[in-house]
Amino acid sequence: MRFVLTHPMHTHPYNPELVTGSGVTAIAAAAERAGFHGFGFTDHPAPTQRWLDSGGHDALDPFVAMGFAAAVTTRLRLIPNLVVLPYRNPLIVAKAGATLDALSGGRFTLAVGVGYLKGEFAALGVEYEQRAGIVDEALDVIRQVWTADNVSFAGRHFEFDGITAHPRPQQRPPIWIGGNTAAARRRVVTHGDAWCPFAAPEMLARVTRTATMDGDAQLVAGIKDLARRCDSAGRDPAEIDIVFNGLGSTPGRSSFDPASFIADVERLATIGVTVITLSVAGDSVDQAVSAIEEFGDTVIRHQVKRTRP
């Protein structure tokens, strides 16, 4: 099992230490030392005050912040959680991703979602009801400009002619696609290298406009559906990662039980999950670093020991 850490800026307000260059780099360096596979940031460029007051959280720009993390690490992959793809022109996303991949030595993974905050879409001038179609076209655009020159495209949402965008990534970054729906799994088969479902009880699923996922049965059903779609498209399901976000306990809190967490990890591994995304307590940078170190000692190293022959 591999683990991806989301920067622990998950409240409003937040500890100002978390948004300093030294804070970001300290957390990134700690994640690499602890054995995390990846590290990234959420994407909320224009959240509404109403959403923040009802439990939302502030955010850094993920591409800028991942650049800071890249500069102090050598192995850690840079994996946002998630880039809301309709918020940006796909040529801008492709350029930012290619730049980060080139400067980090090929360590960028583009993880994307369709988004759900209507107020944020409105503020950014993006048609909310068109977001699914925008994502489909954007993924096609990004893959093309990362791999070819003199690219032309004519779609409903984007149109351009003869674009060559260099520098290219060192190699095409993996594309991870978030969401619990069948549409998300369809996009994985067409464009992606990983499916990223998340735990979503009925109320959360309504808020985030996705399918409910409140138990193993729905996750298993989704993985089986993905495998069927892969078979129909001639893709090997084993080549697609299953990236799960939603284990309940938070490292760094007094309630965190490493043994219980490991048991959940092992259960998910038997289902087919290959990567787990999590965050840690973020009341301060020191607390976050301590929680990362504890997680590395009690969970990640335990996993490494179990997989050694």
TrEMBL record:
Keywords: Flavoprotein, FMN, Monooxygenase, Oxidoreductase. Signal peptide: none annotated. GO terms for molecular function: alkanesulfonate monooxygenase activity. Residues 2-244 form the Luciferase-like domain. The keyword tRNA-binding does not apply. InterPro entries: Lucif-like_OxRdtase_Rv2161c (IPR019921), Luciferase-like_dom (IPR011251), Luciferase-like_sf (IPR036661), SsuD_RutA_monooxygenase (IPR050172). The keyword Oxidoreductase applies. SUPFAM superfamilies: Bacterial luciferase-like. PANTHER family: ALKANESULFONATE MONOOXYGENASE, ALKANESULFONATE MONOOXYGENASE-RELATED. This is LLM class F420-dependent oxidoreductase. The lineage of its organism: Bacteria, Bacillati, Actinomycetota, Actinomycetes, Mycobacteriales.
